[in-house]
Specification:
single chain; Penicillin binding protein transpeptidase fold; OB fold (Dihydrolipoamide Acetyltransferase, E2P); 4 domains
């Protein structure tokens, strides 16, 4: 029998074959055991990365990004080549040549595990890291490692290398809530990926290994070391030159967080959107990649924010300087690093930078601002800081800078448009501003307070305050509907009203504390005469008046059913006031305010789109076959011809060219609206809103409002393309101080906004509708003027409501004195 003798080589070969075969059988068995537990990698084609909610203005500028994870998904074509090179050099330089598993690297890692007994990660390719990050838990075991390998091989079979790398670069966590390279570029540098420099690219590539530890915000030194490693690997792979390598290596590491590149200052709108979408779609909005296009116009929003802040700062400075935020002791020979440390805990508010006074001279001072560095405060920026007095006034004028500030004072400073710096303080009063398009109700700008991040209470929507005289136009519109005219005389005289529910009689008075006798309704609105308004409401009856005023969109429960309504004691929000005045601005139609134009869902499909009711006067035409009689005043001088249909159907009905549910309903007649707007134009031409004449436009109308004890100041104004409301008051209601009324406190905010909003827009004179008569009247009596009568003027009347001839007029003024119970169930309070 022949004997077979095996040499050492054959024995080793046999052992290797047996070992390899055994390993193959073991892997096959492991695969059979584990494959049922493996997820389907094809699902990655439908994977939805957690993308935060993004809110945009109607012109496509970012307002806010809301969500726990910050992510900006990028297609492969949008990723810079050098960034890909950096990641490959740091994480997997053989990515495009292996099939998902680097067996040599895996063997080395396994050998280290066997020697050390530890189960730390190692030998993982980019594909394996992606598999682990998407499908598997953080458990460290051989079972999970085998699952990782099997899934990786599947992934490489079903996806291209470019697809895998794109998923990896968009999916992986890179520290500080940033997921993917797009978010990392924004978080660490405030840039998009195409704007990154080589040192910044290397730093981001270095965070893939241990993102929570190696990012520059968590540890700048470790981030710098990791960046050096990435740069060295890029140099070894000849992705960069020696000169580029040395320059990038020497670059400093920036160690601070950057927010999303917010382009529009509208955080109050963003919060309104968030709440609205959360109710509609649930928590998915934070991760589903929803995009919301709002109705906000970025230019008008910026104008509104600036107008509100400037107006509040001006108001605040009229009432004196309350002193520094705090005082600190300056170290001897202090330098910028010392000043920065002292300012570290003080935040910036609405552009007001915290600063420390470092030098004080005779009529100027030097401060170190948190972000601007050394700034000079000239006398013009200091002299306003007079001492506030208990009655709301201020003390004597300052004589020197040391009367206001001292070295070591922590204060706020603000830079003016001229570039000069000014001492400032955070206003205690608050404000709100709303502007909308009266043709469809789109909110084009909304500001709910001085600084959202200091107080997120949205005063434009959530605050309900008394509007004061700004409410009178709704009452006067009701009066016109009941036969009053702009020329109706009402007695502006003392009034005493007794009510059993009061300890004493109610004696309302005008703001001026004077009485002016018989006053035409137009003049009463222009001069904001309270006693005239009370007599008008008493003549109408509170029940009718409140029912009529509901046409403007005010909730019934917020309208008092008593005579105080004439003085604006309803509880309303600035948004409601703006929407209500839109009825006057658009010719008499009721539009509903809205701020979401459309919502784009995770699949780039529009999931919500606004369908506002639009003002469309052209949608209705009088029927040709119906009679169109002419009503004219006879025997009155200066009468112009008018056409006046007999009934509302003929006046407003007819052929509609839009779907009924898209047409805004009529709230008041066009004739009523025209007369009211004409009266409110006089408010600006010669009344309480006369400051607005500086805008040099004749197409503006509006009304001021001031409440008891000057607790609220309002101005609501408009033309046919824009209606806006400005409000100023304290959250905890108290007086704004002496002479702080709507015309002085709120109107400037409106003017600042309108000066920007209407820039370049031509004036559009309002066209009078049919059914109006313009005639000459006596300015003294409001009656039709007689030939040759002095002191006459032209007035506009609704046909059918003309003043009586002078010779037929009675001595009274057509309005009886208020009665305590004119409407039966309507008490005074």
């Amino acid at each position: 029998m022949q004997r077979y003798v095996f040499g050492p080589g054959r024995l080793l070969l046999g052992a290797a074959i047996l070992l390899g075969g055994g390993l193959a059988l073991a892997l096959a068995g492991a695969y059979q055991y584990l494959h049922r537990t493996l997820p389907d990698v094809a699902a990655l084609r439908d994977v939805r990365l957690q993308v935060p909610l993004r809110v945009y203005s109607r012109d496509g500028r970012l307002i806010a990004q809301i969500g726990e994870q910050r992510r900006i998904p990028l297609p492969y074509e949008a990723i810079p080549k050098q960034l890909i090179n950096a990641v490959l050099a740091a994480e997997d330089d053989r990515f495009f040549s292996h099939r998902g598993v680097d067996y040599a690297g895996l063997a080395r890692a396994t050998f280290r595990h066997l020697l050390s007994g530890s189960r730390s990660e190692g030998g993982s390719t980019i594909t394996m890291q992606l598999t682990r990050g998407i499908f598997l838990s953080r458990e460290k075991s051989y079972r999970r490692k085998l699952q990782e390998i099997f899934l990786t091989l599947r992934l490489e079979q079903q996806f291209s290398k470019e697809e895998i790398l794109t998923l990896y670069l968009n999916k992986m966590f890179l520290g500080q809530r940033a997921y993917g390279i797009g978010a990392a570029a924004e978080v660490y540098f405030g840039k998009t990926v195409d704007q990154l420099t080589l040192p910044e690219i290397a730093l981001i590539a270095g965070t893939f290994r241990l993102p929570s530890r190696d990012n520059p915000v968590a540890n700048a030194e470790l981030a710098k070391q990791r960046r050096a490693y990435v740069l060295r690997r890029m140099r070894q792979k000849e992705y960069i030159s020696e000169e580029e390598y040395q320059a990038a290596l020497a670059a400093p590491v920036e160690s601070r967080l950057h927010g999303p590149a917010v382009q529009v200052r509208a955080p109050y709108v963003a919060e309104m959107v968030r709440v609205d979408l959360l109710e509609r779609f649930g928590p998915e909005i934070y991760t589903g990649g929803y995009r919301v296009i709002t109705t906000v116009d970025s230019r008008l929003q910026d104008a509104a924010v600036t107008a509100l802040r400037v107006a509040l700062v001006e108001y605040d400075q009229r009432h004196g300087y309350r002193g520094p935020v705090t005082r600190v002791r300056l170290p001897p020979q202090a330098r910028e690093a010392d000043w920065s440390r002292l300012l570290a805990e003080h935040a910036e508010y609405a552009g007001l930078q915290p600063a420390i006074i470092t030098e004080v001279h005779e009529r100027n001072a030097v401060a170190y601002a948190k972000h601007a560095g050394r700034v000079h405060l000239d006398w013009s920026g200091l002299s306003w800081a007079r001492k506030p007095l208990p009655d709301g006034s201020v003390g004597p004028a300052l004589q020197r800078a040391s009367d206001a500030v001292s070295p070591g004072d922590i204060v706020h400073v603000v830079q003016e448009r001229s570039g000069a710096w000014r001492l400032a303080q955070i206003p205690q009063a608050q404000g709100a501003f709303v502007a909308l398009d009266p043709q469809d109700g789109a909110v084009v700008s909304l500001v709910g307070g001085f600084d959202y991040f200091a107080s997120n209470f949205n005063r434009a929507v959530q605050a309900r305050r008394q509007p004061g005289s700004a409410f009178k136009p709704f009452l006067y519109s009701a009066a016109l509907e009941q036969g009053f005219t702009a020329a109706t005389l009402v007695n502006d005289a003392p009034l005493v009203i007794d009510d059993p529910g009061l300890e004493s009689s109610w004696r309302p008075r005008n703001n001026s504390r004077q009485f002016y006798g018989p006053t035409r309704l137009r003049e009463a609105l222009v001069r904001s005469r309270n006693l005239v308004s009370i007599r008008v409401l008493d003549a109408l009856g509170p029940a009718y008046a409140t029912q009529y005023i509901e046409r403007f969109g005010f909730p019934r429960e917020h309208l008092p059913r008593n005579l105080t309504l004439a003085l604006g004691t309803a509880q309303v929000s600035p948004l409601e006031m703006t929407s209500a005045y839109a009825v006057f601005a658009n010719g008499g139609y009721r539009v509903e305010p809205y701020y979401i134009e459309r919502v784009i869902g995770p699949d780039d499909q529009v999931v919500l789109e606004a369908r506002p009711r639009i003002v469309c006067a052209e949608c209705f035409e009088p029927r040709a076959e119906r009679p169109n009689p002419v009503m004219a005043a006879t025997g009155a001088a200066g009468v112009t011809a008018i056409d006046m249909p007999l009934d509302d159907e003929a006046r407003f009905g007819g052929l509609d060219y839009m779907s009924e549910d898209l047409v805004a309903p009529r709230a008041i007649s066009p004739q009523n609206g025209y007369v009211m707007v004409d009266m409110m134009r006089d408010v600006i031409r010669r009344g309480t809103g006369v400051r607005a004449r500086q805008l040099n436009r004749s197409d503006l109308a509006g009304k001021t409002g001031t409440t008891n004890d000057r607790r609220d100041a309002w101005f609501v104004g408009f033309n046919d393309s824009l209606v806006a409301t400005a409000w100023v008051g304290f959250d905890q209601e108290r007086s704004l101080g002496p002479r702080e009324e709507g015309s002085r406190t709120a109107l400037p905010m409106w003017i600042y906004f309108m000066s920007e909003a209407l820039k370049g827009l031509p004036e559009r004179p309002r066209v009078a509708p049919p059914g109006l008569i313009t005639m000459r009247i006596s300015a003294d009596t409001g009656l039709a003027a007689r030939p040759g009568e002095p002191n006459t003027m032209f007035e506009t009347f609704i046909a059918g409501h003309l003043p009586p001839a002078a010779q037929d007029a009675a001595d009274d003024f057509g309005v009886s004195a208020p009665a305590n119970d004119r409407d039966g169930g309507d008490s005074l309070f």
